[in-house]
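hey can u check if this looks right to u? its 150 residues, i copy pasted from the old doc so theres a chance i mangled smth
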Amino acid sequence: MFSRPFRKKGALNSTTFLRTFRVGDYVDIKVNPAQQKGMPYLAYQGRTGIVWNVTPRAVGVEVNKQIGGRIARKRIHVRIEHVQHSRCREDFLNRRKANDEAKAEAKKAGKTIVTKRTIPGPRDGFMLENVKTEILTPIPYDIVREGIKY
């Protein structure tokens, strides 16, 4: 499960250590088996959390974990080799930027604009033309006439 991919084994890249994490950043926990120190427990593999603490070699990540019937917020420290910046908010931030630009343009034009997302309704109907109906009738199967072939 934690084996490195083909031709990706060996020492870690220096960019892994040069990434900056700030409190409030969303990060994905993705265990890197080349570094055994600071590994999170198996249950946190693949989870997305929020950074709540930054230390020289690790970050504190707050992750939701289901325990029985409730969801608990767990705070764990994970070495930076095992976390990466999450892309979960990219779509939201791009949409917010586009909405702000659209609102600014509408304000200049003196109009009001609705930036809410809408559910796409059903597709428009259409009529089929020059279609001929064909009636298919089943052919009865006779085991005696067909014979049993092995």
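The chain has a mean pLDDT of 92.
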